[in-house]
Design a protein that fits this description.
The chain has 2 domains: 183 residues, Growth Hormone, Chain: A (Up-down Bundle); 231 residues, Growth Hormone, Chain: A. Helices cover 81% and strands 0% of the residues. The longest helix has 37 residues. By secondary structure, the protein is an all-alpha fold.
Length: 475
Amino acid sequence: MQETTVEAAAPPTRDDPARPPPLPLPLQLGRRGARSTFALLWLSETAFDLGTTLVSFAVGVWIFSRTGSAQDYSFSVLAAALAAMLVTPFAGALADRHDRRWVVLSCDIAAIACTFAIVMALLSGRLGVGALYVYAAVAAAAGALRRPSIRVAVSLFVPKDRFAQAGGLTGISRALVQIGAPAAAGFLMARTGGLQGVMATQLCLLLAAAALVFAALTRAGAQVRGGQRASGGDSVRDASLWRSASTSFAGALAYLREQPLMRALLGYGALVQCLMVLATAMVTPLVLSTHSSGVLGLVMSVGIVGGLLGSILVATARLRHGLMQWVLACDALQCAAVLVAGCVTTPALWCAAAFVCLFCGSTSVACSHALWMRKAPAGRQGSVFALIAASNMLVMCVVLLAGGWLADAVLEPALRQGGSLADTAVGVWFGTGPGRGIGLLFFATGAAGLALTVFALFHRRLRRLEALVPDGGES
């Protein structure tokens, strides 16, 4: 009897044929449970992104209205980008080795505390530009730390054939936020006389985001939350955060060494990101060089609508296969649109190029994210996602620093009347005068991106990446 009792109490093993294997997480949660859990996480991310976009717009307006310096505003953008880039190695360690529920909640609490401090400084009349730089950095760091944990959680309970659909839904919410947030921020600033109303709204949105994500990860279960044990079997709390970050970063690099095609995808994505950031960062001076701010608003609005429709396409099409082909084809069209935008000078054609560029860009991003979620191994997903985010942030910082200098100091002077390129074939083709140097930059950027994507399309192994690289968890 004793032997029977002990045997019955033994934990199930994989080698025990009498015990069925555990169900996959999507089946454990159930279809309805997985949908409701994703809905809570989606709403949490939407609330967080809406608050971040509101504050980013309002802080830029506040700084420029107080100082009259575009450089002071650019410093706030750069502070946010650098802070996000520096914390991403820790984001991977936290996502892979700690309870994701408490990781995300801690980030939200830090953002709430900083927002509350800014509100109090506003009420006391002691807010300075330096404090807003610090706030922008802390808010960006909190977002960078929480995002990999949410992405890993989603990849664990959403079925693999729905990853692209999940990315499309996220793209829809972000596009809607980009459309509505600037108008909402302007309305709040006009009604409240400044930054106070925007910060108070941000405080409410952060509280809602924290409550929603805590509820979602609590109901998802321990396997989705993670953090019980490290891969070696020791408690993850015994390791320092710095050591965990180093180990996680090394694990992400090891995975890329093991899978050269995924390494190629990371490099390809970083190069395309570099080209696209350079183009999108320069669209404002390109249009404003010869047209009014109203034309710029029209071009950007049409582009955002294109991005929204691209996300809706991915969310409703339920793409299961051929994701890499979708990425490459959309990137080729996106680069072609940037190339055309550099050659033309009419608002209608700029609107058409912006629509195609953001439509294809949002589709490509959603499919690329789905590929990484499907292929990255479960134990390293947070680290891999953090490494991708770090590479994108590094690209953005370099482009923001170099793109403006290249346009203002090199290309624009070269295509002025009497400039070094004015009487050459380049000057004849692109014309001379304000904005033509930036147009040449757009053309060169689009041409380089198009050549890169065409090369990738003809690279047989990269084109077949989805079939050649095993899914996460497969041998």
